[in-house]
Amino acid sequence: MRKFYVIFILTLILSFALGYVFAQDWSNNNENVPGTAPVTQNDQDSWKKERDPLKEQIEAMTLNEKIGQMVIVGIDSYENDEHAKYMIENYQVGGFILLKKNIKDVDQLKNLLNSLKESNTVNNIPLFLSVDEEGGSISRLPNGFKKIPVSGKIGSINNSAISFQVGNIIGEALQLLGFNMDFAPVLDINSNPQNPVIGDRAFGSEAELVSKLGIQTMKGLQAKNIISVVKHFPGHGDTSVDSHLGLPIVNHDLERLKNFELRPFMEAINNDVDAIMIAHLLLPQIDPDNPATLSPAVITTLLRKEMQFDGVVITDDLTMGAIADNYDLGEAAVKSINAGSDIILVCHEYAHEENVLKTLQKAAANGDIAEERINESVYRILKLKQKYNLSDQTDFVTQEEMNARITAINQRIMKLLGE
Q1: Do residues 316 and 345 lie in contact, with contact meaning Cβ atoms separated by under 8 Å?
Q2: Residue 182: its H or E element
Q3: Per-position DSSP letters for 215-264, written without gaps between them
Q4: Confidence (pLDDT) at 38
Q5: Closest among 226, 270, 274, 232 to 250, alpha carbons compared
Q6: pLDDT digits (tens, 9 = 90+) for 328-365
Q7: Buried residues in 35-72 as b, exposed as e (16+ CB within 10 A)
Q8: What CATH number belongs to 73-414?
Q9: In terms of pLDDT, which residue wins out, 236 or 273?
Q10: How do the domains of the chain map onto residue ranges?
Q11: What CA–CA distance (Å, rounded) separates 364 from 67?
Q12: Which of 28, 39, 131, 359 has its CA 20 to 30 A from that of 207?
């Protein structure tokens, strides 16, 4: 009996040993057989990285749908008129900008923005709904809101926390009304007393001050889920011409620009700015032939490559005199996209807007703008809309709630001003 147990135990040991060797041999052989290696976590992560839903969305878009996303247009009335609806239904525009001429009161403005959203439900990409709200003289808040202090006054206080609160209050007001994008803050340095267009729209005359306060205002806006578009790259402070009327010249070399005008924009990039507006300026020592908005040297070489900005680049309004008096707007739009811009801003007149859209469509169709160049811009645009979770869902607020929230915002402004 004892001998039997010894044989039984030896047999078990031998079986386990042979099984282990066989398993190891199978495992080793499997490593050399294509398609049999187990899927690791790294493999799964790699697959997820390769599969990009935004790229898939872009692949499913028509060329004209892509072009539409690259244009923000204005409206010529207080209402969502036939031209605005046509822009949505036939051109699938990426967004709208509202100006002073479009804003009468709180109810009208809220209804206009909701109507634009409702019209855009025919498309599957939400609209940018943008405005210039800097505070001071450049304000679009309707009657009922207390006025936000001008940036120059905020600069004289020189308090980062207050600057954040300014952006936060503006953001709260814009969010309440239905906007999702603000062309602010101004990061120009007010270094030329003869400047007819910047002045106290800037925080001050020193790069460090403008950088510090501008970034905090930007962050205040972002904290309320408002896209902050800082402006006017590469710096409109040292000019004596208003670009609404003519083409300003900034005759500084790159070293001077990096040490002064560009510093606030570099700080913004380091602090995750989402979008930058390009100014209609001529920098002869950088590009003697093209305004910044049409210049590959300014947008692609300087801003994209040297300053490493990969966010959304938006032009200033193409209907301004600096461009409109010197170029066909459609041709200027094509030059700007090829120079590296992502979005063309056309604030005035339906005929100008349609000219830009049709010319861009034609240029894209015949290869004057490479589809790869278009896809790069559309990717940035969709990524930004996704980041801020933009939606065309309408937001109806009762009059009582609207009044209560406006009162609360006004109280924040009065507290800010020490009133």
Answers
A1: yes
A2: strand 181-182
A3: HHHHHHHHHTT-EEEEEEET--SS-SS-TTTS--B----HHHHHHTTTHH
A4: 43
A5: 232
A6: 999 999 999 999 999 999 999 999 999 999 999 999 99
A7: eeeeeeeeeeeeeeeeeeeeeeebeebeebbbbbbbbb
A8: 3.20.20.300
A9: 273
A10: 73-414
A11: 8
A12: 131
Lookup: tokens for 131: 């405005």
Q: Tens digit of pLDDT for each residue in 115-126?
A: 999 999 999 999
Query: What residues contact 164, with CB distance under 8 A and at least 6 apart?
Result: 216, 217, 219, 220, 223
Q: Helix 82-91 crosses helix 350-365 at what angle (to 10 degrees)?
A: 10
Candidates 179, 299, 272, 180; CA nearest to 218 is 272
Inter-residue contact 228 to 182 (CB < 8 Å):
yes
Concerning whether 244 is annotated as a catalytic residue, the answer is yes
E-strand ranges in 93-148 read 95-98, 128-131
In three-state secondary structure terms, 189 is coil
Q: Which two tokens stand for residue 199?
A: 């002045």
- Which of the listed ranges 42-51, 126-135, 406-415 does the model predict with the highest average pLDDT? 126-135
Residue 209: which residues within 8 A CB-CB, separation 6 or more?
155, 158, 203
- Can you read off the two tokens belonging to residue 208? 């460090």
Q: Which of 132, 316, 317, 342 is catalytic?
A: 316
**What does 349-375 look like in DSSP terms, one character per residue?**
-HHHHHHHHHHHHHHHHTTSS-HHHHH
Question: Treating both helix axes as pointing N-terminal to C-terminal, what angle do 329-339 and 350-365 enclose, rounded to 10 degrees?
Answer: 50
Backbone conformation region of residue 92, classed left if phi is above 0, alpha if psi is from -120 to 50, else beta: left
| Active-site residue flag, 252 | no
SS3 breakdown of the chain: % helix, strand, coil, rounded to 5? 55, 10, 35
Exposure of 229 by Cβ count < 10 A (0-12 exposed, 13-18 middle, 19+ buried)? buried
Predicted confidence at residue 241, as pLDDT, reads 62
| pLDDT at residue 192 greater than cutoff 80 | yes
Write the DSSP string, 46-98. Answer: HHHHH--HHHHHHHHS-HHHHHHHTEEEE-SSSS--HHHHHHHHHH--SEEEE
Checking 366-375 for CB contacts under 8 A at 24+ apart, the result is: 368/334, 368/338, 369/334, 369/337, 369/338, 371/63, 373/337, 373/338, 374/63, 374/66, 374/67, 374/70, 374/337, 375/58, 375/66
Handedness of CA 215, 217, 223, 228 (dihedral sign): negative
Q: What is the mean pLDDT of the chain?
A: 89
Tokens 């390009």 correspond to 278
Tokens, residue 117: 């959203």
pTM of the model as a whole: 0.86
| Closest residue by Cα to residue 177 from 109, 264, 104 | 109
